[in-house]
Give the backbone structure.
Amino acid sequence: MAVVAGVGDRSVSWWREPTKDQWLAWVAGWLGWMLDAFDFTVFFLIMVPISREFGVPLTLVAGTVTFTLWMRLLGAFGSGWLSDRIGRKTPLMMSILWYSICNFAAGFAPSFAVLAFFRIALGIGMGAEWPAGAALAMESWPARSRGIMSGLLQGSWGLGFLVASLVYGLFYNSIGWRGMLWVGILPALACVYIRFFVKESEVWQENNHKRIEQQRMTPVGAAPGLSAATILTVFGWLAGAVVVAVALFFVLKAVAPTVLGGLVEPKLLSILLDDKLVGVVAAGFTPFVLPNLAALVRISIPTQLAIFRPPYLWNSFTASVWMTGQFLVYYSMIAMFASWLQKDLKLSPGDVALPNVLHNAVAFFAMGFWGFLADRIGRRLAIMIPAIIGCFIAPLYLNTTDLTWITIGFAMQGAFAGAIYALQPAYLTERFPTEVRGTASAFCYHFGAIFGGLVPPTITYLAVDRGMGFPQPMLYATIIGAVVAVVALAFSPETKGIKFTSDVQVK
């Protein structure tokens, strides 16, 4: 079994160890993620003016973020499966083109319904970018410095948000919210670089070569195809998923009041037990239940569902819960922050942009630091430590209306809760073998996005409709998310120094 990315030669500097092709692949993932961030986060800065122009509630505008994030799961799972089959480059280029065109089209929307359609569709391209880009960048990188480069890769998201904040602060008064969306077409130019300068991952190429050899040795009659039996099998699994989701829904509705009744205030409990929220939770956990029930009655499990069965089941589950915690923290901290400053504190575009710019600038360098530290103390501790510290930083800027303290506190948070995402590319890709890496990392990452997507409208509902204001819901959700992430990591494997190999065996 060939080792492609190993420990490396420590007699040379870590930045000289990667080849030119490895650097080019990493830059491709870095660019894709930064530009993805620009097109997505620009919406956080313009939700209030969109609400005013179309005369719709801010809660409804925030709700489009939820559906955008949910559509990411569709794009991610499709891209993850595709990148495991045809390579990492093509899905990456397709994803960048998709989200660039959707953002541009949204700028011409004559109504809120049209704008919401394109912003929600944008989620497919967003979701498709991460698994392809992360796999291409991290698979190609030597294990010795994978932590720090993972931090810098993930930190490019902060740079994308930083650029969006700068464009907002400098040009919003001239170009308006539509112009902010039109600028989103520019990321499509990155596809030229990827097409002509980036090579396919060597790990994937070796794995694909072995898969082709294995298929050649498979009897013709055993080759899969689109037959009536295949179609019936797909519908059977879909029907089973619906049955399991419905059963989980009623189980949760029956059990949750007893479990949470003495722990949660009645008003909050009524929100948590809302049918729509319980339905999302039931649907989210259905993939972990259905394949294992099928296995009990000796039904063959499709390869696409292998990550929900042993030996991957526990790893997939803890990774999904970890990502849920991370997304809760991010969208509690970021999604409605600009709306709070605009709606409640009546700040100008420049004043709204400043703390966002500083937060994301600090987060970029902090992610590099925590990634560097992860190569020494391990992946889990390098995420858990800043998550815990972030819980104590949050009150500094959320329990005040003084812009100076808000700016200082939010900038500081960039070094802690704002940097817990540094190890996502490295840690998620290291947790799974090559054969399922794209699919597994895509699912786990965007499983968290499903629940993270509930945060913006929930916070807005509590702030506006329930009259709680933005700071307290943002604070509580940040702490809850951090606790969830830390607990999941405590039960997760350590992967520091792991080597990427081709795992298809030709018999």
User: Anything to note?
Assistant: The chain is about 75% helix and 0% strand. The mean pLDDT is 88. Strands lie at 3-5, 500-501. The radius of gyration is 22 Å.
